[in-house]
UniProtKB/TrEMBL annotation:
CDD domains associated with the record: DEADc_DDX10 (cd17941), SF2_C_DEAD (cd18787)
PANTHER family: RNA HELICASE
Pfam families (alphabetical): CTE_SPB4, DEAD, Helicase_C
Domain notes: The Q motif is unique to and characteristic of the DEAD box family of RNA helicases and controls ATP binding and hydrolysis.
Domain of life: Eukaryota
Protein name: ATP-dependent RNA helicase
Provenance organism: Selaginella moellendorffii
Lineage: Eukaryota, Viridiplantae, Streptophyta, Embryophyta, Tracheophyta
Keyword Hydrolase recorded: yes
Length: 694
């Protein structure tokens, strides 16, 4: 027969409660300043062992169930923030905890939450006792998983995850009233607070805000105010973040009671993990995509997390790079994806290696992706806090990691700001290849002409990026007027920058960009197609399509740009002759990154092209030539179809005019009718007939 395990005195809730009270350290004192011996002896004055200054979980007044869960998850020694926060939080005090990214803040709030409910003998049906709020769904899921480890053996502490997306709200509503602990995003929590009658928060014991500064900022202001209005003031509140708020108004909203401010790394000389190497490279906006591409290509065995500022940019760069096949698995994570997809990407990236994940700032905070080698910030972060959280996805829990920030020359002020905030960022060698063509934009342009979805995504990426810059608060760093927008559009494979209405003018109309575009086209044509020829003509037609003609050795090259911004190029041969391609000449400057993330011009270095590479390059170029011809046919077909469409529309307009005319003049036959062909007259008759039937 299975023996029932007796719960010893160290396991019982009463015993723990007495132990905590008897050995509670004075408010405001720092547990880190206390050194406990390895073998802690019972304090004769209290009859309990001191726990302030403990370095291992088993030295704390914790239940056997929690200790078992921690041991199974291989958590034995505490991190600094856990050593600092747990003695105060276990004693029931409000805590405002700040510690570097990846330093173990999650356990610093989950353990006191679970233990408090254990000591209160909380059960399902007693009402909701603990709420953990997280700013993003993925982070909420991660916290929920971590809670599962800590509370694994507390079978009475029922818990649930409330996040937007795929989960069934109706099903949640049926069950939410039975739960003791909820991990939630603000919006979904508020939904249930308003809509679910069985959700009773009257006896809430602990409220936790993870990434507290984010939840307290203006983005969640309305939700948080409404949530707080539904919760009792008598509760323990725990706030944690790597970049903590101390704003009096923020804290007043939360009705904190004598909170303990625990900033364990405030004395540290650097604000980011000591194991993190940080580089910044100044590269013009329109060279960023190419720089990123080359960076990825030279890091094919690494795990990379790449940040861009908008969903559409993430979608576009992911889509374009997927077509171009860098040779490493790619994925993307952004707020417009369905929750199921987001979950899949998140869990795949956790396991995948090598891998590249393109993401917006929804992945910037809290997510604990294992062993990310590089965090690359293609777009400048909106502020220093965002930078700290983004780079914090690597170099976690004392592991090594590297980060690379790409800044347009107009954004260099950011380096100063970062250094002022104790961020040791080193400037790497000049990265922008000067005055050279960007083959990549041509290749992307080729895909845009084949894939209308990708083209639309490129246009949206351009517009949303510009809008995000315009909306930035720090105008010293973000100045849309200084950005090379037409060139940026070109780097996305678009030949014409889409209209940006919110700038109050057509930022890159055909007229004002034709010169720079002409230069870009001339550059790209001379480098990639080996036509160092003269630009014969460059003209825009009334539809906004732009054409440029180049001539070299009897061959006509036509470059064109359709009104929607897509680019095409074609080559007409006057006489058939074998195509000779010199694989080595005319290639653009290549940017090579060494292990440290420094870059160097490949031409300045040793010869890297083996003969195999030359052959591969030759085939690639031949393939491109064939694709160009194919594209030319497609363009001609498109123009033909457009002509047909225009003619049809003109005819329909004519029919409508006659139709209106006839309704105004009664049965008198208008003169215009005489000019119609028999087929058109039949069409008109049918139209009138169908109307009279209605
Ligand atoms: N005591 C511990 N012993 C061993 N590993 C730990 C311990 N505490 C936390 N960890 C591990 O450290 C990693 C980072 O922890 P966590 O996600 O809590 O960091 P964080 O400080 O919340 O980071 P961020 O500021 O990015 O949100 C996790 O993988 C976690 O499992």
């Amino acid at each position: 027969m299975k023996k029932r395990r007796k719960s010893g005195p160290g396991n019982s809730s009463d015993f723990l409660e007495k132990w905590i009270r008897a050995e509670a350290l004075a408010p405001g004192s720092n547990p880190m300043a206390i050194k406990l011996p390895r073998q802690v002896l019972v304090n004769p004055a209290t009859g309990f062992k001191p726990y302030a200054g403990a370095s291992r979980f088993d030295q704390l007044p914790l239940s056997g169930k929690t200790l078992k869960g921690l041991k199974e998850a291989k958590y034995e020694s505490m991190t600094e923030i856990q050593r600092a926060a747990l003695p105060h939080a276990l004693a029931g005090r409000d805590v405002l905890g700040a510690a570097k990214t990846g330093s173990g803040k999650t356990l610093a709030f989950l353990i006191p939450l679970v233990e408090k409910l254990y000591r209160l003998r909380w059960r399902s049906g007693h009402g909701l006792a603990g709420i953990v709020i997280s700013p993003t769904r993925e982070l909420a899921e991660q916290i929920f998983l971590e809670l599962g480890k800590v509370a694994k053996h507390h079978r009475f502490l029922t818990r649930g995850l409330l996040i937007g997306g795929s989960h069934d709200v109706g099903l949640e509503s049926n069950r939410v009233g039975e739960l003791c602990i909820l991990v939630a995003t603000p919006g979904r929590l508020l939904h249930h607070l308003h809509q679910t009658a069985t959700l009773d928060c009257t006896y809430l014991q602990v409220l936790v805000l993870d990434e507290a500064d984010r939840i307290l900022d203006s983005g969640f202001a309305r939700e948080l105010t409404d949530i707080l209005a539904a919760l009792p003031n008598q509760r323990q509140t725990l706030l944690f973040s790597a970049t903590q708020t101390r704003s009096v108004s923020d804290l007043a909203r939360l009705s904190l009671r004598d909170p303990e401010y625990l900033a364990v790394h405030s004395e540290s000389a650097v604000a980011t993990p000591a194991t993190l190497q940080q580089k910044v490279v100044i590269v013009k906006l329109h060279r960023k995509i190419e720089t990123l591409w080359r960076f990825i290509k030279t890091r094919l065995s690494s795990k990379l997390l790449v940040f861009l500022s908008t969903c559409t940019q993430v979608k576009f760069v992911y889509g374009a790079f997927k077509h171009l096949r860098p040779g490493v698995p790619l994925s993307c994570l952004h707020g417009r994806q369905k929750q199921g997809k987001r979950d899949l990407v998140f869990s795949n990236f956790n396991q995948a290696r090598p891998s590249v994940l393109f993401a917006t700032d929804i992945a910037a905070r809290g997510l604990d992706f294992p062993a990310v080698d590089w965090v690359v910030q293609v777009d400048c972060p909106e502020d220093v806090e965002t930078y700290i959280h983004r780079v914090g996805r690597t170099a976690r829990n004392k592991l090594k990691g590297k980060s690379l920030l790409l800044l347009d020359p107009s954004e260099v002020k950011m380096i100063e700001l970062l250094r002022q905030h104790k961020i040791p960022i080193e400037e790497a060698a000049e990265a922008a290849p000067r005055g050279e063509s960007c083959d990549l934009s041509q290749q992307i342009g080729a895909w845009l002409s084949k894939d209308p979805g990708l083209k639309h995504s490129a246009q949206r990426a351009f517009v949303t990026y510009v809008r995000s810059v315009v909306l930035q608060r720090n105008k010293e760093v973000f100045n849309v007027g200084k950005l090379p927008l037409p060139e940026f559009a070109f780097s996305l494979g678009l030949a014409i920058a889409p209209r940006i209405r919110f700038l109050g003018k057509q930022a890159a109309s055909v007229k004002n960009e034709s010169q720079s575009l002409k230069n870009e086209l001339a550059k790209s044509s001379s480098s990639s197609s080996k036509v160092a020829g003269e630009v014969k003509s460059c003209a825009a037609d009334e539809d906004g399509d732009l054409f440029m003609r180049l001539k070299k050795r009897g061959r006509d090259f036509l470059f064109g740009v359709l009104e929607d911004g897509s680019l095409f190029s074609s080559c007409r041969h006057k006489k058939t002759k074998r195509l000779k391609i010199d694989a080595r000449s005319g290639t653009g400057q290549r940017l090579v990154f060494d292990e440290d993330g420094s870059s160097q011009d490949e031409r300045g270095g040793k010869e890297l092209w083996s003969s195999n590479a030359r052959i591969a390059e030759r085939y690639k170029r031949l393939q491109q030539e064939m694709k160009e011809r194919d594209r030319q046919d497609k363009v001609l077909e498109r123009l033909r179809l457009r002509d047909k469409r225009l003619k049809r529309k003109a005819r329909e307009r004519k029919l409508d005019l006659i139709d209106e005319d006839m309704s105004e003049q009664g049965d008198d036959k208008p003169e215009l009718l005489d000019s119609l062909s028999l087929a058109d007259q039949e069409a008109l008759a049918l139209k009138l007939l169908s109307r009279s039937n209605h």
